[in-house]
Design a protein that fits this description.
This protein is mainly α. 71% of the residues lie in helices and 2% in strands. Helix 1 packs parallel to helix 3 (90-100), helix 1 runs parallel beside helix 4 and helix 2 packs antiparallel against helix 3 (90-100). The longest helix has 38 residues, at 8-45.
Length: 217
């Protein structure tokens, strides 16, 4: 920065703001996949018509779209700088990321609820394709798996396994590191956003408004 260390703090704040704004794009996209997979799992389980399942999918959508709204808000409320580029609204960007540290966890919790315990207890693909004979009439391990873990008659057990494996990965596996853990700690852990929210909240102006309304001089 050619010795302009006075701007070092501002540079970090602005970089962090842009990074936190972007989370309401990338994490919302993953959220769409989680919601879609949960809806498919409910359908394949034969439970998609249940009112409580519909309500959980609505809640997941509500949370995910709220995150998206935050991302749009901090972008559209930004201002053009003297240099000509646009600076996002730093307060709303930090609010955006603070919500990201919370909502994906609830979205995943609801997805796991909808999917059921089979999401983590289902046999492996090797078991489903095993030709090892274990039954009296020549039934294989694969035959039993495909019979006993079937859902709706019109949906193959393999397809049911596939969507539950996707959910397992998104909620608990390697992909969950990028969705849940990164939602918590990416672009700064929650306290970093709370510090910036405190700095950007302009609490004195809010106090002045309250004074004006109730006649305090």
């Amino acid at each position: 920065m050619a010795g302009e260390y006075d701007f070092a703090g501002m540079m970090v704040e602005r970089f962090a703001g842009y990074h936190r704004q972007s989370y309401c794009g990338c994490k919302v996209g993953v959220g769409d996949v989680v919601i879609g997979a949960a809806a498919l799992a409910a359908e394949y389980n034969g439970a998609d018509k249940a009112s409580h399942i519909k309500d959980k999918l609505i809640e997941m959508t509500h949370l995910n779209e709220t995150l998206y709204c935050c991302g749009i808000a901090c972008s559209t409320e930004g201002q053009q700088t003297k240099a000509g580029n646009y600076q996002i609204d730093l307060l709303l960007a930090n609010v955006c990321k603070q919500n990201i540290t919370r909502f994906p966890y609830e979205i995943v919790r609801l997805a796991e609820d909808i999917a059921g315990g089979l999401m983590v207890t289902m046999p492996s693909e090797t078991d489903f394709k095993s030709d090892m004979v274990v039954g009296k009439n020549g039934e294989t391990i694969g035959d039993y798996c495909n019979k006993l873990f079937a859902g709706r008659p019109e949906v193959s057990t393999e397809n049911r396994m596939r969507v539950l494996r996707l959910l397992e990965n998104l909620c608990l596996g390697a992909a969950a590191v990028g969705y849940r853990t990164e939602s918590m700690h990416g672009a700064g852990s929650p306290q970093a956003q709370r510090i910036m929210i405190s700095r950007q909240s302009n609490l004195q102006a809010k106090k002045d408004m309250a004074k004006a309304i109730c006649g305090i001089k």
